[in-house]
Amino acid sequence: MTDVFSLKIGGFAGQGVKSSGLLFSKFAVDSGYNIYNYVEYPSLIKGGHNVIQVNISKDAVLGPSVKTDFLIALNQETVGLHLSELTSKAKILCDADTNIPKLPAGVTLFKVPLSKLAKDSGGGELLGNTVALGAAAALLGGTLKILSNLTNKEYEGQRFAENNLEAAALGFRYVLENYSSKRIDLLRYSKSDPKIVLNGNGAVALGAMSAKMEFSAIYPMSPISGILHILAKKQKEYGYIYMQPEDEISGINMAIGASFAGKRSMVATSGGGFCLMTEGLGLAGMTETPLVIVEGMRGAPATGLPTWSEQGDLQFVLHAHQGEFPRIVLAPGDLTEAFYLTMEAFNLADRYQTPVIILMDKNICDNDQSAPEFDISGYKIDRGKFTAEKVKDYMRYKLSEDGVSLRTVPGSGNFFIANSDEHDEFGYSSEDAENRISQMRKRMEKLESCAKFDMPKPVLFGPEKADVTIVSWGSNKGSILQALKKFPDVNYLHIVRMNPFPSDAVKRILRGAHHIIDMECNYTGQLASLILEKTGIEIKDKFLKYDGRPIFVEEVEDKIESVLKGGK
Amino acid sequence: MIPNWCPGCGNLPIWGAFKNAASKAKWDNTNTVLVAGIGCHGHILNFISITSFGGLHGRPIPVAEGMKLANPKLNVFIFTGDGDCLGEGGNHFIHAARRNIDITVLLHDNGVYALTTGQTSPTSPVGYKSKSTPEGNMDNPLNPLALAIASGAAFVAREYAGNMKNLTDLIIEANRHKGMSVVDILQPCVTFNKEFTHKFFQENTYYLDESYDPTDRISAIEKAQDFGSKNIPLGILYLKYL
């Protein structure tokens, strides 16, 4: 099976749609397959329509698709909302009393008494989702033992653990007894390398822990709250501090204080919280305090689309705060990049003593994906120019060739002022014009140094010479690479380093390109603007989406096809 | 650097008292760190040879909290003003009080925005005329002491800047007390506040005597309401042992 099989679970919020999807995707992974989950949910806790799509394949699955091969409808509403996405041979699994007025031709219906079996399990109707998982696992040729082991592990120590186990088994057996001839071989156990199932929030949290983060203050906000949930829970075990500040302004200032005192520090927020952090961002820049800031983008402006995705904050994070100071901006394209870039961000922050922003979109934050296990054996913590010892004639902001000065901490015996006012080499406030120029140059030089020593070239996926070159960033990477499997003559330039920007490499690649398509989830084409600014190359063909939904694999395919056919 | 405050400025004796306290209590670069916000008070960092962080307007408290959490061994002092602490940074002040991290807040309270050349502040009295309230201030002043006690701060005190010797000892005591300590320092601004003058504070303040029990929270909040002719209490208003 190299094609992607798309299973969708729909129900109302509170019915366990997300947790069922995650359990099912782990089941698929334990059975030897790869998954990519895509979740859609409204900004409320109970009621409303929740959907999770589990994309399954023997090969890596990289992005969400529009089509649905298998629909699990936990309520009546789901059927109506998703009927149009069904493929011609799709299957629907629903409760016995679900009413399907007009079943599309070719679609098979599997009615399973979900509520009844859930009650039989002893856990009550709410376990209908687990019954459905058991039934779906059976219909797709899965192994009950794998599902049982997983259910056991996931619900261990929780109320209804036994009942969930029973519910899954009841669903599974019901299919064996009633639909045994209709089973397909999709999830038959097949050996594979060990894989993890994780979303971007989890990857950032693990990345921070692997980089030996020591302090974090995060105010809750969708879509990054998942980061703090993990950090808060694991702090005792790993020996760092997580605390909940009263607002994002406080969060970033606390993190700056902790970093100034020598601890690796991180904050995370979404665009709205980053608005509040903006003044702190410049404070870190001016005082040359290392700091990692995660910005998870959602539909904006104002409260916007709190639980949906967008890439509308690129130009904002590149320019936020008054005046000029060095900032490093990294934009991961999937959870694996999110993990390794988070670790790298801590080193860059320490090396250049300046804020590093990790810019993610909600799709990366929230969507689970299977990936090879992370390997941190190649990672070395680099605190940069740093000492906790007393140094003779110490000057905190001593001018230097690469713009970086020796950093120390309070309590070390050294005297210095980390000063938000313009300052001299000791840190004393200074409004002297010559000093201003030398300190400005020193700070800005750090960006040049980073560009010189710490900037890997952007990756060009696909052939060097191509009929069409796609340029994009963030989570679009997945759908684009998934689509590219069908188009051997199309390549993809994935941009991760937003500042400093790899201008020369991008210029070289795009100058030779035949037809360039810019793909982004925003209204104005913010990456295209950045490319124009940095390289002078104007990309005219833009595929822009700003409805909160991701760019689906099919949309990329359609776009490429229309360009190859000579259209737009 | 040499202080650049106006002659007669209340910051001068606060600076003196802090330096005396540092010398008495042996605070130095091996054990102490200072944080300041923005306002005339913030200049103080340039005149003390102890490592410090000059932050943003309104934000010294969270920076200090981060430092103390990062290194609990440090004595952490915050210099802040009434605009800095109670205006721009009001949210941080109340949340820091309920959090009670072991930091010491020295509130340079002059009832005016001085560095921006004279506008009304959160502690300016009703009717106070300034560049921002030419017809007189219509807003009620905030009461930093009552606010600190109500929010949970462990040590809440008031002193007049001119009482340098007592202020010295009070700063040491505030630092020694576990939890967040707030010292509201009545500080004349000789240039922009003609109401809260040295003379006014000298004539209208008095020290709480031994009959006053600072551990009674409700009576402390009541006592914190007193402010007026011959009726401004000085000393420790509230103490809570964590």
What is the number of beta strands of chain B?
10
Let me know the largest β-sheet of chain A. Answer: 8 strands, mixed
The quaternary structure here is heterodimer
Strand count of chain A: 22
Label the structural class of chain B: alpha/beta
Give me the number of helical elements of chain A: 18
What name is given to the CATH topology of the largest domain in chain A? Pyruvate-ferredoxin Oxidoreductase, domain 3
Classify the secondary structure makeup of chain A into a structural class: alpha/beta
What is the 3D shape of chain A? Answer: globular
Report the mean per-residue pLDDT of chain B as an integer.
Answer: 97
Walk me through the structure.
- The complex is a heterodimer of chains A (568) and B (242).
- With 568 residues, chain A is an alpha/beta fold.
- Chain A folds into four domains: 188 residues, Pyruvate-ferredoxin oxidoreductase, PFOR, domain III (Pyruvate-ferredoxin Oxidoreductase, domain 3, 3-Layer(aba) Sandwich), CATH 3.40.920.10; 176 residues, 3-Layer(aba) Sandwich (Rossmann fold); 68 residues, no CATH class; 106 residues, Rossmann fold (3-Layer(aba) Sandwich), CATH 3.40.50.
- Chain A is 38% helix and 21% strand.
- Chain A has 18 helices and 22 strands.
- In chain A, strands 8, 9, 10, 11, 12, 13, 14 and 20 form an eight-stranded mixed beta sheet that branches. Chain A has a six-stranded mixed beta sheet with strand order 2-3-1-4-5-6, sandwiched between helices.
- In chain A, helix 5 runs antiparallel to helix 6.
- The model of chain A has no long low-confidence stretch (mean pLDDT 96).
- Chain B has 242 residues and is α/β, with parallel strands linked by helices.
- Chain B has one domain: Rossmann fold, CATH 3.40.50.
- In chain B, the strands form two sheets. Chain B has an eight-stranded mixed beta sheet, sandwiched between helices. A two-stranded antiparallel ribbon of chain B has the order 5-6.
- In chain B, strand 5 and strand 6 form a beta hairpin.
- In chain B, helix 3 packs across helix 4.
- At the A-B interface, helix 9, helix 10 and strand 16 of A face strand 1, strand 2, helix 2 and helix 4 of B.
- Strand 16 of chain A pairs parallel with strand 2 of chain B, so a sheet runs across the interface.
